[in-house]
Amino acid sequence: MLSRLPKSTLVLIAFACVYSFWGSTYLAIHVAGEQLAVSVVSASRSTLSAVVIVLICLLSGRSLRVPRGEPWKLVLIGLLFMSANNMLLTWGEKLVPSGFASLIISTMPIMIAILNGCLPGGEPMNKRGWLGTLLGTAGIVILVWPSLHRHVPQPGASHPLLGVAVLLGAALSFAIGSVLSQRFHFRADTLVVTGWELGAAALFNWAVAFGSGAQHRSLWTLHGIESIFYLSIFGSIFGLVAFTYLLQNVAVTKVATYAFVNPVIAVLLGVFLLHERLASTELAGMAVIICAVAMVVYSRVNRIPRTLAAGVGDPSE
What is the pLDDT of residues 102-148, one digit of tens each? Predict the structure, then answer.
């Protein structure tokens, strides 16, 4: 049914899914991570999502085979998206509040811009882009500044500095996966591509879970199970399928604009549902980071050919 819709409508639906579902996954990750080990959370959501996608493909008559030369690329992207990024993000949310975590992850478009400029055939950043990068770095410093003057945290308290390092690693792995995903130009069906990525990540994540004995340290609760289902269906399937579709049909710098919306949703949900609070300096850091991301993204969008900026034609790097 969706395939019959105009491409412009599909792009809008995909953006809505990425904006709303990924903004709310920070809350679900926080809840799931309270009782379950990091690798178990990542392995469970990846497995459930992969199984659902395989069933959809079988019922719809889609072949799960992909063109020669693409399997290893799909495995690599899956490990970057749903193993490295997902496990680091889940770990990071054990160290800092979910709203705080979303602000750090929102620096991902800046990393994409830098990677695109450094890789062969990429588009180097202009002065506005580099100014935005410096501003984003300043925003992170402002965000963690209060923690630099605190005493050693008590057990159970947040660990902002370690959390920032872990979350920056999560953002970097996703940025690398995003750039490579677009450069690979996958020819397989979007749903099949997502299924391969999730399946590869599920196998790797379970290997980490069993290898570390994490399954014995996990406590399965109703809220934890509900969070896993939400992350699997809405975060991994709807969100990742929509994101993969956008990467294949829209310029990556336009796709990266979801980083403006997700932190706002995550912070609001953290405030209203988890009773999280941001200090005045952290709010200032939030504003600086979002402005920095906007500067980087729009410094590059303006240089994309009009047909591509409108979402028509092959994706632009």
Answer: 888 888 878 888 888 788 877 777 778 788 888 888 887 787 776 65
Maximum pairwise Cα distance, the chain: 60
Rounded CA separation 182/26 (Å): 25
Which is nearest to 88 in space by CA: 5, 193, 187, 162? 162
Backbone angles phi, psi at 29, to 5 degrees: -65, -40
Give yes or no for residue 261 having a pLDDT over 70: yes
Tell me the C-alpha distance between 68 and 200, whole Å: 17
Cα-trace Rg, the chain: 19
Q: What single-letter DSSP state applies at residue 188?
A: S
Give phi and psi for 176, each to the nearest 5. -60, -45
Domain coordinates of the chain in residue numbers? 13-148+158-304
Burial of 213 (0-12, 13-18, 19+ CB in 10 A): exposed
Residues 100/51, Cβ–Cβ less than 8 Å = no
Q: What is the pTM of this model?
A: 0.79
| 8 A C-beta contact, residue 93 and residue 269 | no
- The residues, any chain, with a CB within 8 Å of residue 177's CB and separated by 6 or more, are 76, 77, 80, 81, 85
